[in-house]
Write a structure and sequence with these properties.
Blueprint: H1 2-26, H2 30-51, H3 55-86, H4 92-97, E1 105-112, E2 118-124, E3 127-133, H5 136-151, E4 159-164, H6 176-182, H7 189-202, H8 205-208
Parallel strand pairs: 3-4
Antiparallel strand pairs: 1-2, 2-3
Length: 226
């Protein structure tokens, strides 16, 4: 047991160090800000401790809360830096959707065209959410076609569409998770399962793509998409 704990701790410390280096590249002041938060928090509690004549107790409490405050601030700045690096990268929306949380079933790339405009699907208690990334003008027609395709089997389920981006009526990648979690929950758990099963039966881009059996003929290229 002791060996297992010892092996896990270096792994966690290494992960924190790598996260800090990644964040430092985007947010050069992260170290100063986190340190300042810790010092100020500890200093305030220590000062209160001397004021009420309990410096040891308030000092220990201040140290614990300072560490907690530093962890929270570092986590938020690291998350912001990660989203900043993901902004505009193909597949960034799918990566965010995969980490929305429990209660959501995500199917990446249910539709894609040759320009690599892509639509991902998430199913949860809010209904069906189509998350699109790419050119907004092309995505509008793609979203309409995907809704029409789904309407054959889930016509009674609310469908929301989101275009990821920084333009008007678009949702920035860093706010995508919050957007989904704020949607009203209208479906009970069992119905979510039924809807998800129906959509899986409908298939997605990869399962619907005809791939011949046997070895691929020489010179044959895979289709680029719709």
């Amino acid at each position: 047991m002791a060996r297992k704990e010892t092996s896990e701790n270096p792994g966690r410390l290494k992960q924190i160090a790598l996260t800090y280096k990644m964040t430092k590249k985007v947010d050069s002041k992260v170290g100063l800000v986190v340190a300042a938060v810790g010092i100020v928090t500890f200093g305030v509690f220590l000062a209160i401790g001397f004021w009420i004549d309990h410096p040891i107790f308030l000092g220990i409490l201040g140290f614990v809360l300072a560490f907690l405050a530093m962890a929270i601030v570092f986590g938020r700045r690291a998350e912001r830096a990660a989203f900043g690096q993901m902004e505009g990268q193909p597949g960034a929306a799918a990566a965010v959707l995969e980490n929305v949380g429990r209660g959501w079933s995500v199917t990446p790339a249910v539709a894609m065209n040759r320009n690599q405009d892509v639509i991902h699907r998430a199913v949860g208690k809010a209904g069906i959410v189509l998350v699109a990334e790419g050119n907004p003008n092309r995505l509008k027609s793609m979203l309409a076609a995907e809704k029409k395709r789904m309407a054959r089997i889930v016509a009674d389920v609310p469908v929301h569409d989101v275009i990821v981006g920084t333009g008007e009526d678009q949702v920035p990648i860093k706010k995508l998770r919050t957007k989904l979690l704020k949607l009203p929950r209208v479906l009970p758990g069992p119905q979510v399962t039924v809807v998800n099963d129906r959509l899986r039966a409908l298939g997605d881009l990869m399962s619907n793509m005809p791939i011949p059996k046997g070895p691929m003929p020489k010179g044959m290229r895979m289709p680029k998409g719709r």
